[in-house]
Protein 1
Amino acid sequence: MNVLLDNLSLYGKGLLGTVELTVFASLLALVLGFLMAAFRVAPVGSLRAFGTAWVTVLRNTPLTLLFFAVVLGLPRFGLVLPFNLFAILALGCYTSAFICEAVRSGINTVPVGQGEAARSLGMTFPQTLGGIVLPQAFRSVIPPIGSTLIALAKNSAIAGAFSVTELLGVYKPLSELGYSIIWTFVWIAVGYLIVTLTISALFNVLEKRYGVAR
Amino acid sequence: MTTALYDIPGPRTRQRHRLYGLLSTALILALLGGVVYLLFSTGQFTAAKWTPFTYKGIQELLLRGLGNTLKAFALAAVLSLALGGVLATGRLSEHRIARWVSTVLVEFFRAMPVLVMIFFIYVALQAEPLIALVAGLTLYNGSVLAEVFRSGVHSVDRGQREAAYALGMRKTQVMTHVLVPQAVRAMLPAIISQLVVALKDTSLGYLITYEEFLHAGKLIASNLDYDLPFIPVVMIISPIYIGMCMLLSWLAHWVSQRQRRNPKVEAVEVAAPEPGTLLPGGHRPPA
């Protein structure tokens, strides 16, 4: 118990770092994920191919390798950004592939008649997708996106090992100060539980308000 | 390909799509070209950075790393399948205590980041890197697999279970002879996809100095004698990693495709009785 009370500001900073990473990487992942899903159903062949390649490569890349390449590799091209920006970039791109797959399967749950009706009214592809299909797909993709974002919050722990301020990194200064390692980790675990349970509560609310009525 | 999202294009639309296609292809190619130019201009293709990969020692270092990665993966896969089986048995058990304990374990290990568990075992319990990595991966993937197994058993048609009980089988017999074989068939793609996750996560061993593939790459990349060949290392390591994971994902996809075509998995379609046919029992269906 002492570990937490003595180092409340350290834990707070770590928790804040994890929350910040999660929020910004989620936004990036959602934007990229929806864009790639749109690409993957587009009538233009090269966009479809690009979307497919993006998803296949990123889904099969170990996140540690991606972090390794982005955090340690991009500076060699003269691109020097703060570490947490690199981390957001890596996490966001990685998760966008999973968001894309969730959205695409959501698009498939929308009844065919909806798209056909939109077409028969003379709507173009962007109008059909943006105005008719995606809003309905959104309702059924809330739960899978929620679990993807929870996975993102858990994956953000990897950033801590690449010298980004976040919750897991807290253990290092504390073990040097000689606190009990077990309790240090217990409070780190509680911190992660707070983040993931908050996301899951948020998505429960969203699901209740906007989800498909069953 | 037919889709409900856009009409089958006419000649003018086809022309327009071709234009868009050309523009986007040009854009993508320009981006790729930019990356290649950047690689050249920062001197990533110099001989000094690439010759080390022809040395026997370096190749052996990389191969040993790959071997360690595969070793960790094999151990984690086997152990997490076993743990998943045990936890799923617990969750499906009729004894309340077993059910309660395994539910708590599964929910806890699924909610924790794998890396926190690995670090906990490595730092707090002072385990060897390999043991910490394998144990962390096993706890996480075992819990996820337990849920996969459980939902697989639940997905088997209720009539199967009822019929087995009606034949007088004991609950263990029902499980092992009737439910599990069908559940494993249905769940095989999901199980293999989870193994892909385990394979990807073996790279976390790099963070606790387990001498796996990425670690070997890092050793080479930080060697001043070879002019710090970081980008070449990434260019060699990532296709191998991605290729291994893709192969396994592709296997999962192949299995699921095969099952979709398999008549044993599909329900046999029964033709609707026509007015003339005699139904079992000897009476005619109402016309």
Protein 2
Amino acid sequence: MLEIKNVSKIYGKGESQVAALSDVSFTVDKGSFLAVMGPSGSGKSTLLNIIGGLDQLTSGEVKLNSERIDNLTENEMVTLRRGKVAYVFQQYHLLPSLTALENVLLPLAFNRRADIARAKEMLRRVGLEKRANHKPAQLSGGEQQRVAIARALVSDPELILADEPTGNMDQKTGQEILKLFEELNAEGRSIVMVTHAPEIAQHARETLFLKDGQLVEIVKNSSA
Amino acid sequence: MNIYKLVLKDILRRKKRVLYAALGVIIGTMTVVGILTVAAAGQARIINQLEKYGPNLTVLPAVSNLNVTLGDLSLGAISIGDNYIDEGRLPEIRVITDGKIREALKIEDQGNIATIAPKLYVNAAVNGTNVLVVGILPQEEKLLRTWWNVEQGIYISGTNDILAGASASELLGLKSGDDISVGNATFKVTGILETTGSNDDYQLFASLSTLQQATGKEGKVSSIDIRALCNACPVEIIADALNGAIPGLRAVAVKQVAATEMGMLERINRLMYALAGITLAIGAFGVMNTMMTSVHERIKDIGIMRAVGSSQRQIIAMFLEEAVIVGLIGGIFGYVGGSLLSYAIGPLIFEGTAVSWVLGYFPVSLAVAVVVAMLATSYPAYRATRIRVADSFRAL
């Protein structure tokens, strides 16, 4: 469903140019769970941002369901974010002035279909229905990430892009979040997850290794 | 929940910041409302004064003095012309005056417009003292001398009533109800005027026709005061027209001190408007500054909103909503503050002028404040839409 073709990303100009990604190509099938691994500075987050249209590539193509998404207009990009693609970030990125429920409701509100019942259902799905009226500051890191996942799920995306989703939590909480991702994947949603830890990458079906902006290999994980 | 509620929640979280932005608008609108209110009070005062100046035109008999000389020897002066105006000229004077006013104001109304008040001056001995008795048309004169107040008794109503000026009544020892004779008629004092500070204080006022008969001056008047009912009336044009059309009289436009004052006010107003404009601009700059900071502080929030599907238009709409709220706060407090300000400084500028609340300036204040806040926010809002999601997260 996702096709990455000769993607390069160069930061800066002239002599200070840095290639964050050089000529990366791979495909992600529908229903996959791909972990992107590599040391810091290897271009993993850049790759994820480019796939999700949060950042622009220098050359190459990104196709979702055979349609290019790397050169979308502003409005097309908005439509994509409201529908097929959702993000989960390491820093959760919840709006501090809103309650958990309102944060989950946010994508629907921007899409003018604010459906509180659906938002509540998503909170229940991540086991946080009792925390619906809490603000992010009143929630633990794991709980905040669950809210963020519920927010990602509320618009029923085909593809979830997760950037170090367990990077800010202890191992136990991290395991719970990863379990949640496994369940979502089992529902048929495709997931691309960036991580730098091998034990976390083990939860995915496949692992893609990046080094210095170049694709090293893609390995099938035995345990998943 | 919709995005408007979201903005409200966000504003409540950043009360101080929003109030700080509103402060800029408050100061701007306060100045504008204050200036408008003071200007309105000044204008009202001057119009009021204009009315008190009485006639705009005075028509006198055309009397000219000729110096008679024989060689180097002056033989004194002789007056040429009649000392009175024929009453029969009055309809003609009215036609010309009203015609010119209609022309100037572009009105069709066929009724009488100007107040035309003929008078006859007669020197008479009353109780052994010489005094000036003025024959007037009581109704017309009252319209002209709006400042007249009858202190004792009542205003002239009957044909043999007489009204005494304050000083005249004192000098002659007159009281309301006294009988006096002028010429071959007997008058009854019906009222005493309050002191006016003008020549009126030393005069007696009687009905024109009765005085004409009593002194054998039927059909004659000494002068005619004309007051057009408007401040914009072309008194000079009317005077020229009267002088050109009717021989034997001289129409003079009364120099309008008030009009000059009006011109002065106009200039002061212009200066104050300019000042208000500058204050508004500074206020707008303050709002822009605060909003710019607000955009900067919320780069991450904006990035989050963009990542979960807000469009650029929605981001702009959110900032403009905030601007409207800032504007409304600014407009309300600016109006109240401006009114209080003018209440405090108005009497200092136009001595003794009571400044009143002008409710009509409330919507003006709101509109000015909201427009200024929205204009000042438009650039920061535009900048907010330029934020790239990936950059916004990297920045923090």
